[in-house]
Amino acid sequence: MALPNYANLGFTTIRVQLDGAVAVVTLARTKERNTFIGPLAHDIVKAYDILDRDDRVRVVVLTAEPNAPAFCAGVSGADPHLRATNADPFVPCKADLSSGWERILDDEAEKEGEHATVTPDSPLLDGLYYSILPNKEDVFPAALALAKDLAENTSGTAIAVTKALVWRGYDNIEEQHIVDSRAIRILARSPDAEEGALAFKQRRAPKFGDKLSRLAPWMPWWREINVKHRKSKL
After folding, report:
1. Cα separation of 204 and 200, whole Å?
2. Dihedral angle, C-alpha 27, 59, 100, 32, nearest 10 °
3. What domains does the chain contain, in order, with CATH numbers?
């Protein structure tokens, strides 16, 4: 595919920037406390669909602007249960945006909940966060450093296939064994496997460069469901 220019894709509620192999997606509705609306959902889905197919991108960081009073203050709608009057609470929409990620970083002062709030270090949220930082200003630099470490020191194809084996596995052990064995066979012969072994032998940092697009048409091996909205003729 042609390499996309993320500045020219018509996003109105987010910004997408590349920092090496890391894509930074920034929610850009600061004045509205990043409340979740239709155009924001559309922009996020569009961005991630393109990022997922961009071989330059290894890791994605989702964040808000430094001066934003909230990462996401919930859904903008008529139902007061889904609207946040306080900038801090971790309301349903923010939970949805965050819980699907492999690593979540937050500051220890952030409040979670709708009515009775708790902080990130509460036992009620044990295991949710990868890291809890002392200050709000520490969160993004730490997340970016972690993203760059993952991008530089892991194989993108190995990570993608491993995640897919977990999320796109089969309901029975026989089929799961077949796809798992196929994955091992393909990855064991990949350029990144060769580079990893060579780097270990030479006592140096690896330089992984394999592309996920190389695994087509084997991956995806699952049946993808088209969830895009279709215009009705009625």
Report:
1. 6
2. 0
3. 6-152 (3.90.226.10), 155-215 (1.10.12.10)
Which residue spans within the chain are E strands per DSSP? 14-19, 22-27, 59-64, 105-107, 131-133
Name, in order, each residue with C-beta under 8 angstroms of 81's C-beta and a sequence gap of 6 or more: 114
Give dist(CA 197, CA 3) in Å, integer: 30
Structure token digits, residue 225? 């469901």
DSSP letter for 75, please.
Answer: B
> Of 182, 159, 160, which is closest to residue 170 (Cα–Cα)?
182
In the numeric block, which tokens belong to residue 107? 């500051």
Q: In residues, how long is the chain?
A: 234
What digits encode the pLDDT tens for the residues 93-119? Answer: 445 555 556 666 666 666 555 555 677
The model carries a pTM of 0.79
The Cα–Cα gap between 65 and 72 comes to: 11
